[in-house]
Amino acid sequence: MTGALTPPWNNDKDKHLFLLPFYHCYGFALLMGSLLNGATAVVMSHFQPELFCSSIQKHRIRHVAVVPPIMVFLAKSPICQRYDLSSLQFLLSGAAPAGKDLCEDLSRKYKNMTHIQQGG
């Protein structure tokens, strides 16, 4: 069970952006796992497009867990083009399935990012 808290991207050099609610076990488990492994945690109270992108750029965020509507934002919004999001290496998605086309759009746009779909 503790293996779920120590995935390969969770170490003391990682920087994670959290915007999922912590009253759900998924958001809470991701936050606790990151903190237990010494990763930097940047927390947003809710999704704000400009702040989301500027936080990734400013803090050089490597890991973020999102829901499919935020994946659509990352794939299609012109707001994303105004920021350097190249530090993103891992994108976890859940809560609902992300379609094949959306996943392919993200892969084309963010070539160095690994997308992992969990649940939903």
Automatic annotation (TrEMBL):
One of its GO terms (cellular component) is peroxisome. The chain crosses the membrane at residues 20-44. It is found in: Peroxisome. One of its GO terms (molecular function) is CoA-ligase activity. Gene3D superfamilies: 3.40.50.980. It holds the Pfam family AMP-binding. Residues 11-119 form the AMP-dependent synthetase/ligase domain. Keywords: Membrane, Peroxisome, Transmembrane, Transmembrane helix. The keyword Transmembrane helix applies. PANTHER family: BCDNA.GH02901, LONG-CHAIN-FATTY-ACID--COA LIGASE. This is AMP-dependent synthetase/ligase domain-containing protein. The lineage of its organism: Eukaryota, Metazoa, Ecdysozoa, Nematoda, Chromadorea.
